[in-house]
What does this fold into?
Amino acid sequence: MNRIVLITGASSGYGKAIAKAFKDAGDTVIMTARGYDALEAARKEVGGDLAFTLDVTLPSDWEKALATVKEKYGRLDVLVNNAGGGIAIKEVSEFTAEEIDKTIKLNLNSVIYGCKTFADMMKAQKTGTMINISSVCARQCWPTWSVYAAAKAGVLNFSKGMYLEMQPHNVRVTCVVPSSASTGFQKACGIGETTDKLMVEDIAETVLYVANLPQRAVVEDVTVWGIDKQVNPL
It folds into this structure.
C-alpha cells in the first residue's frame, strides 16, 4: 500500500510487532522509541525504513518528529500511539507524586501530544488514521493498577473525542484496547512476566485491520482478549 506509518514504542513488544505488520503489508514504516540502540536493532529486524529517538512525554520531541516527517515524506497516513509503561504498579497510597505524574505523562499525555502534533497535517491531507493503544485496565478494575488504569481510561475517552474533531476532515481515530500479552511490560514493572496466550502479533493484526478498512469505515474502539482470560468485574 505504501502508506507512511509512524509507530511509537517500536523497539519491542506491541510496537515492534505492529511495525513488522505494516512493513509486511508494503508500507513505509517509521519506528520511534527512547533508546536508539534497541530501536535500531528492531528496525533492522523488521526492515523498517526510518528510526529516530522520540521521548513521547516531551512536546519538543514531537515537534522534531513532525519536522522530520515533513522533510522526508511530506505526509503521514497512519499514526500509532503505542508507547506506554507501568512506571509503578502498587497501591495508590504508596505512590510518590512523581510516579503518578510520570504514569499519566507516559500513558495519556503522550497520546494527546502525538494526535495534536499530526492533526493539522492530516486535516490538510483530508485523510489519515490515528490509532491509540489503551489497555483493558481502561474497562476493568484490579487492585494496584489504579493509576495506570486512570491513564488508559483517559486514552479511550480522549480517542472518542478526538475522532469527533477529526471526522469532518475525513480522518479516523480508533482506540485499540489489548489484554495482557508477554511483552516485557510486567517484568519492567517488577511484577514478573506473564505467560499469556495472547501474542503481540495478535494486536499487530488488529491494528493493521483497523488501518486497512476502506476510508468510509471506522472502528470506534476494539477490545482484544486472550482466550485464556476470565474477568469477574467489580
In short: The chain has a mean pLDDT of 93.
